[in-house]
Amino acid sequence: MARRLAPDPAALYDLTEETVAQLDRMGTKSAANLIAGIEASKERPLSRVLNGLGIRHVGGHTAELLAEHYGSIDRLMDAAIEDLQTIYEIGETVAASAHDFFANPENRRLIERLREHGLTMREEKSEALGGARPFDGKTFVVTGTLQKYSRDAIHDRIKALGGRASSSVSASTDYLVAGEKAGSKLTKAQQLGVAVLTEDEFERMAGLRP
């Protein structure tokens, strides 16, 4: 039933409270809350829109990389495969998948329908705090269970200070922020000689504590 009501992402924004209330176990209040949530999603940045499009090989982290690099849906849609591959962590497979998605006329029509519904199709590039970029050119990986911060919060701090947040450890990784039960990523970092930081050490390094 839900699939018939919204066969694609743009169709979500055509829904009304009356239509949604027809769903099984969906009362009037729940329908109103759902429609309010859909309306609020129009303000989400480009990275969240990309993540919701179902582009093969493009998850949350990759969507952030693409949105941060291009800044707008129009620049991304016109990007060549070779240009996509110049982005840090974007390889041939992901570049080809993103390029093919936006080259598809049906997908381009979907983007235009989302635009007509008023969705945000831009990403504000993160600015370094106070103009300082102490992490400029540095790549961090965060792993394990953290006690004080969510992983997203640490990623945001890394980017705000000019660094890159990666999901995998490699020879190009500069620092691994390791929480409890860090597992295989910690082992690999140690094998590669990557500097390992505790959560407290990262706090001090990022200016979050004296």
Which features does this protein show?
210 residues, Rossmann fold, 3 domains, DNA polymerase, domain 1
Q: How would you describe the overall organization of this protein?
A:
This protein has 210 residues and is α/β, with parallel strands linked by helices. The chain has three domains: 2-43, no CATH class; 46-116, DNA polymerase, domain 1; 129-205, Rossmann fold (3-Layer(aba) Sandwich), CATH 3.40.50.10190. It is built from twelve helices and four strands. It has helices at 2-5, 17-20, 28-40, 46-52, 60-70, 73-77, 81-84, 92-103, 105-116, 151-160, 184-192, 199-205; strands at residues 139-143, 164-166, 175-178, 195-197. α4 crosses α5. The radius of gyration is 20 Å and the shape is globular. The mean pLDDT is 87.
Q: What is the total domain count?
A: 3
Output mean pLDDT: 87
Tertiary shape: globular
Work out the helix count.
12
Instruction: Tell me the CATH superfamily of the largest domain.
Output: BRCT domain
Compute the CA-based radius of gyration: 20 Å
| Secondary structural class | alpha/beta
Low-confidence stretches: none
The sequence of SSEs as H and E is HHHHHHHHHEHEEHEH
| Strand arrangement in the largest pleated sheet | 2-1-3-4
Total number of beta strands? 4
Beta fraction: 5-15%
If you consult CATH, what is the topology of the largest domain?
Rossmann fold
From the coordinates shown, what is the CATH architecture of the largest domain?
A: 3-Layer(aba) Sandwich
Largest sheet: 4 strands, parallel
